[in-house]
Write a structure and sequence with these properties.
This protein is an all-alpha fold. It has one domain. Helices cover about 60% and strands about 0% of the residues. α1 packs across α2, α1 crosses α3 and α2 packs across α3. The chain is globular and about 30 Å long.
Length: about 70
C-alpha cells in the first residue's frame, strides 16, 4: 500500500513525464537539492511538494531549480 503525504496531490497515470529529457531534469534537480543538504528522500519530497504548491508538474519545477 502506498501512503501519500497529505500535502501532495496523488500521482496520476498522466504525469506529464514524456521522456529522457524530463527524467534528466528531475535527476539534476534532486542532485542540486542533495548538494544543499537534503538526503535523497527529502530531495524528492521537496521537489514534489514545491511543484504541487506551484501548480506545475515536478519536471517543470525541476527545470526552475536547475536554472537558478
Amino acid at each position: 500500500m502506498i501512503m501519500l503525504d497529505a500535502d501532495l496531490s496523488p500521482i496520476s497515470r498522466a504525469s506529464g513525464l514524456t521522456g529522457l529529457a524530463e527524467l534528466t531534469m528531475l535527476n539534476r534537480a534532486v542532485g542540486m537539492l542533495i548538494l544543499l543538504g537534503h538526503d535523497i528522500e527529502q530531495a524528492h519530497h521537496v521537489l514534489r511538494r514545491e511543484a504541487t504548491a506551484s501548480g506545475v508538474e515536478p519536471h517543470i519545477y525541476a527545470a526552475r531549480i536547475v536554472r537558478r
